[in-house]
Fold:
Amino acid sequence: MTWTTIATITAGQDWQSTPVISSELGYVRLTFETAGVPVWLAQVDPDSTDIYDERRITATPHARILEFEAPPFFSDRALALRVPNFATPFDVQIEVSSMPISRGGSSQITVNTPTSANVVASSVTASTTSVQLLAANANRKSASILNNGTGILYVELGATASTSAFTISLNNGDLYELPIAYTGNIAGIWSATGGNALVREFV
Structure:
């Protein structure tokens, strides 16, 4: 399968569209600058701006391949993306394949979902300097972080978090669940002291 880059879009709170895509190109590969953030995707008619096949996915640290079948009632189509209001805009590279969608035969895909019976609970005191929420752990299946602090918690999938470079921001009472089996460091920083983060790691 051959891939051709058609656009690199800075995904923000408003819909951002690619150039027109051939109706025969059904497979799309997305590469995200930031992981762990919800992204809304849809097909859009460039003439009428009608939205079709809107779907919500989570940005991953690896390229993600999706299948889009062209709506028969669109004369042309493009892809459009946006992110939630709380997310910092980030770049998404969009590629299309040279292989049309197969409409004949059938295939079966087996997905192995990791399970866990062990949970490690911890609490991290709110700090206005970057702190470690979770150390890297190759055995981690998933994790959740609840902001129990008075300030906004900025979470970064990496060694250091800042209020300007982060994966997701959490208000008091917000819960973040890792959408992928990310096993690296997770850091956090608050906008104010007071309270803590309640962390659960599933191993």
Notes: DSSP finds no helices and 16 strands in the chain. The two ends are 36 Å apart (CA to CA). Residues 26 and 68 are 5 Å apart (CA to CA).
